[in-house]
Each structure stands twice: as structure tokens, then as C-alpha cells.
Amino acid sequence: MSDVTRAEVCVTACADLFLGAGETLASPMGLIPSLGAKLARLTSEPDLLLSDGEAFLLTPESTVEGWLPYRKVFDVVAHGRRHVVMGANQVDRFGNQNISAIGDHARPTRQLLGFRGAPGNTVNHRTSYWVPRHSTRVLVEAVDVVSGVGYDRAAGPFHDVHRVVTNLAVLDFDTPDHSMRILSVHPGVSVDEVRKQTSFPLIANNVTETRLPTDEELELIRTRLDPQSKRDKEVPQ
Amino acid sequence: MRDKRMTADEVVGEIKDGMTVGIGGWGSRRKPMTLVKAILRSGVEDLTVVTYGGPDAGLLCAAGKVRKLVYGFVSLDSIPYDPWFKRARETGAIEVLELDEGMFQTGLRAAGHRLPFLPIRAGLGSDVLKYAPELKTVRSPYDDGEELVAMPALKLDVALVHLNRADKHGNAQYLGPDPYFDDLFCLAADRRYVSCEQVVETFDGPPQTLLLNRMMVDGVVEAPGGAGFTSCVPDYGRDEALQREYANAATDLEQWPDFYERFLG
């Protein structure tokens, strides 16, 4: 299909984050990762568990199938059957992420949310990141504050930073020293452009093109999951 | 059985300068705003405030009540950042202990269990420990020998929470989907106060919703609307219009005095 939008490519790239997850709690933060998780549940990963963002686990038909208040989410974090897709104000070449503060933490130039659950998530279970605006300001040489833990730090037995999905590409850490590499570029994006928008050198061997959504996936995204096309606001065409 | 009903001002009369005050709820959800307003109107200052932060954190910073803030995040949920908290941080007005959310819960549990600390994996490798060098790690004494964070007890002088229903003896009930951590705040504190939408003689609904029992509560304040503008479902949702007004006035300080006066009533 020639009319597939960039936002739709990002949704399926987020859905593909959950391939093989099975009965795991998917915790997507933000619209595109949420659409991706819901799409995965309807297609490739019917066993995924999804919450309403509050205390209930919901089926695709919005029936309550479970109760998961915040304290029980913390239990799942520690138990490990969870894949979180977090945002990142900054992320670096080893997957360290910052959502706490820009500048010096003692007196930041810009205070952000705080550590939230990022330190616990990243040492307990699989973590991916979603970056709606891939730029040198977000993909930085070194983050100002380490909220989510990257591969160059003591991260323990359950550390597993999986992928970074951006509006330009899909990146992972499957390299000898776990530094970030380009796994695929979205259709219409060049490796050079991704490199230009990144502050650190990116490994780029065997880069493929991010797959397009199937007709079935497009139909689900457009008519069932996001009929009002809110996705286009998060990732403009 | 004792009648523990009291007014919000009587609760705040128990809070002395320099105390550590835990505030229940989560973000902009079920915050004991009537009790927070009573603090804002009082002369008490120099507080250490322990909170899964929402507008309670911002308002107390605005009024200059906070010496130190202990939090995992501060957010208004539908509005990501609280402008007063941002300003307090960016001007260096407050000391902070910024924690991972799970570490925060573990600290409350340790305090409630009268333990010096509880181990947790969260925090390892992150900058939580860098900015809080008082937090130590501990090594497992068993064969695994794993290094873990020794999350110290977050002991509170006072806990303030808001629930949907309570009786005059201090038993209290939440009717929404999430208990948040209000029971842990009460267990971690020396003095525990619950405000509620309604004081009742007997409770309707499943007994599992009775989050607090009277051993955990020293005072009960009947405060209908007492979580507003934060949410207190099913009694009411968040007042998004008033929250937006708060955030706008907190951003544009010319609007603040007028808003603040109206807000405090």
C-alpha cells in the first residue's frame, strides 16, 4: 500500500517489540506504543496482558479480566513478566535514559518528571524506548541523569534493554559492546539522515527497511484502534 | 470505641515545624487537598514532604512550606509537569530525595515493619544512588551474593490520606479502583489522619475495600469534595478545568495571587 503513513509504520514497529512475549504485561507509555501493544494483542501476541493505564487489565473488547493497582504493578516489575515501552527525554548509545532532569540534578535547568519507575524497570525486565522526534537533542552522547539503566552500567541479571523505536528508525543493542546500532530505517528515511540526527556514532551493518503494516494491521489501526487518527499528531507525515 | 472526628485545622495543629509529613494518593489522584489547604493556611513550615507527587507537592512548594521533598515523580497526570514543583527545583528552593517509585514503596514498607531497611533491586546502576549518597547497598548473605539496594525506612511523623468513606472510629474505605499506598503511609507514621467524603455508621460494599482499620488512624475529618481538584472516583473525577486553572496560574505568576486566594477560599 502506497498510502501507509510514517505513524502507521511506527505503530507496527512498536507491535513487533512484543514478538515472543506471550503472557507478559505490556506497559506502553504514549499513544504510538499503546497502539502497537493493542495491535500485537489482536494479531501476533494474543496472550499479552494490557492494562487501562489505571488499575484494570482489559481484553480487546474492554472487558475487565484482572485487577492490577499500582502496588501490584510493582510486584510484576520485581517478578519480571513485563515489557515496558517508556519515553525518553534523552537516551544515549548504551541505552541509558533520562526522564528526570536536564542539566545539573542539584539545580536543573529543566526539571522533568523524576525517576518514576525507570531505575526499577530497567534492572528487572525487558525495556524498550519510544522517541517520537529523533534528534541530536534526544539521542545524546551522554544523558544528564541516568533514570533508565544502560548496558555500560552494573545492571544485574535481569537487565534487558531491547530496542529504541523512533520516528525515523528501529535501533537495538545487539553489538559486541552493546552500543546502539540501526536495525532498520523507516521507508523514505536514509541511514545518513538517522546518523545526522544522532549525537553519537551508530553502527549500521545490514540495515534493512522497517516493514510496512499488513492490510489486516492497517485495517485494525485505521478502523478499530485509532479511527480519529490521533497517531498523525504524534508522528506527522 | 473512641470518636476520632476532628477538623482539618485541628489536624494541622498536630503538625510542628520541621516534621516529616507523608501525603497519600498518587499524582493528581485522591490527594487529601482539604488537609493540604489547611497546611497552606497555617504557619507551619520547614516540612519534609513525602509523596507520590501531584498538586500537593506544587502547592506546598508555592507556599514555601517545603524544606525537603521526597518523591518518585511529580505530575498532574493529564498535565505532565507541575509548574510550581519545576520552579522550586529550577531555582534550587528545595532539597530533594528523588527515588524510583518502587524504592519509595519499599521505604514505606520498611518503616511500617519497623525495619531499618528492605532490600530492592531498583536503583542499582542508576543515578538515584549518585544523588542520594546516604543510600547504601547490601550484599546477600546467601550463596548468590547479589548486591542490592538497602532502601532505608521512610519514617513519617504524620500521614495525611483521603478516602471515600470512614466511620468516626477511624475505619476507612476506598471505593475507587486503586488503594494507592494510603495504608502504607499510615503504617509508616506516628500520627495518622484520614479525611473522607462522608462519615458513615456502617460500610456498604465488599469488606476488602476497608483499607484502613482504626489501629492505623488517629483522626477522622469529614471533608466532602476533600480531594478536589484531584480525582476521588466514584464520588467524582478530576476537575480538569480547575486543574488547568491551577497550572496556568502557577505558570503565569501574575495570575497566581488571585487564583490562590480563590482556591484557599
TrEMBL record, chain A:
<dbReference type="InterPro" id="IPR004165">
    <property type="entry name" value="CoA_trans_fam_I"/>
</dbReference>
<dbReference type="InterPro" id="IPR037171">
    <property type="entry name" value="NagB/RpiA_transferase-like"/>
</dbReference>
<protein>
    <submittedName>
        <fullName>CoA-transferase</fullName>
    </submittedName>
</protein>
<dbReference type="Pfam" id="PF01144">
    <property type="entry name" value="CoA_trans"/>
</dbReference>
<comment type="similarity">
    <text>Belongs to the 3-oxoacid CoA-transferase subunit B family.</text>
</comment>
Automatic annotation (TrEMBL), chain B:
<keyword id="KW-0808">Transferase</keyword>
<dbReference type="InterPro" id="IPR004165">
    <property type="entry name" value="CoA_trans_fam_I"/>
</dbReference>
<dbReference type="InterPro" id="IPR037171">
    <property type="entry name" value="NagB/RpiA_transferase-like"/>
</dbReference>
<dbReference type="Pfam" id="PF01144">
    <property type="entry name" value="CoA_trans"/>
</dbReference>
<protein>
    <submittedName>
        <fullName>CoA-transferase</fullName>
    </submittedName>
</protein>
